Predict the structure.
Amino acid sequence: MSTATETIEDLVKTEYKYGFYTDVETESAPPGLSEETIRMISRKKSEPEWLTEWRLKAYRHWITLSEPTWQKAHHEKIDYQAICYFSQPKPKKDAPKSLDEVDPKLLETYEKLGIPLRERGRLAGVAVDAIFDSVSVGTTFRKQLAEKGVIFCSFTEAVHEHPELVKKYLGSVVPYTDNYYAALNSAVFTDGSFCYIPKGVRCPMELSTYFRINAANTGQFERTLIIADEGAQVSYLEGCTAPMRDENQLHAAVVELVALDRGEIKYSTVQNWYPGDEKGVGGIYNFVTKRGLCKGRHSKITWTQVETGSAITWKYPSCILLGDHSVGEFYSVAVTNNYQQADTGTKMVHIGKNTRSTIISKGISAGHGQNSYRGLVKIHKSAANARNFSQCDSMLIGSQCGAHTFPYIEVKNTSASVEHEASTSKIGEDQIFYCNARGIATQDAVNMIVNGFCKEVFKELPMEFAVEAQKLLGVSLEGSVG
Amino acid sequence: MNHQPILEIKNLSAGVEGKQILKGVSLTIYPGQVHAVMGPNGSGKSTLAAVLAGRDGYDITGGEVLYNGKDLLDLDPEERAREGLFLAFQYPVEIPGVNSTYFLKAAYNEIRKHRGEPELDAIDFLALVKDKMKLLELKEDLLKRSVNEGFSGGEKKRAEIFQMAVLEPKLAILDETDSGLDIDALKVVSQGVNALKRPDNAQLVITHYQRLLNFIVPDFVHVLVDGYIVKTGGKELALELEAKGYDWILKRETAKV
Ligand SMILES: Nc1ncnc2c1ncn2[C@@H]1O[C@H](COP(=O)(O)OP(=O)(O)OP(=O)(O)O)[C@@H](O)[C@H]1O
Ligand SMILES: [Mg+2]
């Protein structure tokens, strides 16, 4: 009886492959947070006055707040004065002007992570912005994108080259007053990706940002801002990894999306931060605020996430459906293993008429992992004929893990329709033995079953990354036969 | 018979959670043969099948099993399957989300890999499957669905034999494949099983009913009672059991001791 379960549990204990550390000379600020730290960051980045002031306002607000405790995740108190808020690979002479001048050690790091940045080895048809600790080390395919008028660059560059866009949209979806971590991020964010798709343009390739935490005792606070102007379309993907360390590291990002009339943004995440070891030591605290504003009529925002890493994941990619006929979608796979904890879900806030939202959440718990879905569907009085469909499925592997579902529904308009379905299943010994008896080894059987369980979500990922995500789960690709 | 047996069970004892279920079972199956195992509920028939297929959680307390001359009990269940052992389950398991054809293709290719043969791609596999579907008059939509999910009892059993037809095992163990099948289905499935019979393979058929043995004619019938094979005979033994039940054997066996 127990033996079969143990083998299943052993099998999901696959090792973290991205735990290496790159030995590059870095320039780091001393740990600690004060107005001076923020001024220093702002100075380092030669920021305009208005941004420094915005950061300081956020900081002054943050110090009045206390850490939230409502989420179903437990962690040691974070000492915010012990964190280093700025770390960057030491520039060789001047800042690299093109990717060819980037430190080869950094290029190698991304190569090792499967994200080639060199001219020849680039991912076909995917533009990548690579963020190493606090700063962007390079963005590929910029020329090709610029021809279409697409702006894709690091946040720092955007501040200098497109200040009017940044000023207009920064904090417009996630104000610095939003929550504890959003306030902290607004005060200390160091870099991130910026992306603007002009009117009527369909972005000619996938855009992606690859986040890498390298330095020890460093927090990563990046900020991503994506704007799809009228009729524009873009698909964007972020990936994340970090070295294996015994202490926990904080990652508190903010992502803001804005879609104008008929604008469409598809935002996909493959989150594989270091999850800690099998005893629960170390790992990333992934406390992220992601929100999209469907500002225009018929606009659409789709969040797809595959969350396999981090010691604690705490994020709710949300959609504010302001424009009439706008559409919000959330597709999520969250895996918790060993002592990982995930409290994730979404908020769909229906304000416009005929707005629609879909939520598909798949939680997989193994080992001692705890997986919570927390979601809010809110239909405002103005949202006539709003529709929502939610489906939250949990799968348990072994008997020491847990799955929890907290769906909140608030409906203020009687013409709305809200549907919620939920299920919990367990990978049984019977299923594993049945596969074994057909020549399929236990690892492959688990992969097959988990993959089958997540199928609806993987379908939503861009092709190139669907495969990566499936591999990430240790899942063999399920063919389209039959 | 002068060639090697496919299966040689020698004085096998096995139990679960401290409870002794098989108490010294011996049985030898040669290529080309069909053996039937009958016996009352709870006598250990499914346990025997499970131990042969390599299910976890059973303690082997005595005896040995040779499969093509090799120690069977030493192999993992998936290795046994790849070596051509097939168990048609009494209760086939549902696997939601996993497409039936995909599952079967994975199973088929595991066997091919094991033999050092190239894997079949989706198109070639589909052609093979179409052929076997006719044999079992299997509805095509079943293969588009998840493994056994929502299949009726009879559909599940038919699907098991369909898998057997595709995988072409050396030794097939059918655990009560007949229960849950209506008369017409029973005929189709039995014909399927018979069509798969070859001089170099063998079948071990577990059943409660003589009726099945009218279609799948066994060379030997073994009666398993309380963990022992208490009697072995030809196909007429099944008829006798049908007429008289198990009591008369039990009485005679106890009288003998
Ligand atoms: N996991 C288990 N724990 C405890 N007892 C078990 C377990 N598995 C089987 N048994 C017992 O072993 C005995 C033999 O079971 P088995 O399923 O082999 O019988 P069977 O001959 O196949 O019966 P049937 O004709 O009803 O299918 C039964 O008494 C059963 O309750
Ligand atoms: Mg049985």
The two ends of chain A are 34 Å apart (CA to CA). Confidence is low (pLDDT under 50) at residues 1-13, 119-123, 475-482 of chain A. Chain A is about 20% helix and 35% strand. The interface with chain B takes residues 1, 3-4, 425, 428-431, 433-442, 444, 448-449, 451-453, 455, 478-482 of chain A (CB under 8 Å).
